[in-house]
Specification:
223 residues; mainly alpha; 82% helix; 0% strand
Length: 223
């Protein structure tokens, strides 16, 4: 029975991959895009006309946008875990990449970096430099693995660009003292949050594309 367990687990993973790989990028992108647009609009209204809409505050650690952003990252992490499991040749980069996305999801849902920054008095982006460096190395390894899939490389690059710009915007939000902060903080914060959710959506789409390729390769191998 012990020898049958890996085969059964492999079949179970194969069924999950088959289900997820049937998802299509356009509906996923449209649904996520509409949700992001609604959250961004509510966030703008909260900052400009309805300050009591606490759940709409994009900068809050307990907002609807935060939970949605965390859910996107969990979905992307789960799909990339399936990619790592189903690769015919094991990839250390793929395993690290899904762990990075899982950590980002956990962090997003629990505001670890904000708490760490308040506790240490050091900008969280400085504290997270080792994690960021590991993320870049893992991301590049995943990109190299999918170089023969032009659309997936474009998605991986697009997601990385969205997240990179978001990190830069978060870094500059507090520069220049109160007068500059008053002028740029709100638009920079809203744009940053939208870019983070957009980047996470694109990473999810790239995982779906990779899983579809994996499912097709598996079918071709059986035929």
């Amino acid at each position: 029975m012990g020898r049958d367990r890996p085969a059964a687990e492999s079949q179970e993973v194969g069924r999950v991959v088959s289900v997820v790989s049937r998802a299509r990028e356009l509906p996923v992108a449209v649904i996520s895009g509409l949700a992001i647009a609604v959250l961004a609009t509510a966030g703008i209204l909260q900052r400009t006309a309805y300050p009591l809409w606490g759940a709409a505050n994009l900068d809050s650690e307990a907002s609807v946008a935060m939970w949605f952003s965390a859910a996107l990252l969990w979905a992307a992490a789960g799909c990339w875990l399936l990619v790592a499991i189903t690769l015919p040749i094991p990839s250390r980069s793929a395993w690290i990449w899904w762990l990075i996305l899982a950590w980002l999801a956990l962090d997003e849902g629990n505001a670890f970096h904000e708490r760490l920054e308040r506790w240490s008095g050091i900008d969280w982006q400085i504290l997270y430099l080792p994690i960021m460096a590991l993320a870049v190395v893992a991301w590049w390894g995943v990109v190299r693995r999918h170089l023969n899939e032009g659309s997936n490389v474009a998605l991986l690059v697009g997601g990385a660009v969205a997240w990179a710009v978001a990190l830069v915007l978060e870094l500059v939000q507090n520069w220049g003292g109160p007068p500059v902060q008053a002028a740029i903080y709100v638009p920079a914060m809203i744009t940053e949050e939208v870019l983070e959710m957009t980047g996470s959506t694109v990473f999810l789409l790239s995982a779906i594309v990779a899983l579809r390729r994996s499912a097709l390769d598996d079918q071709e191998g059986r035929s």
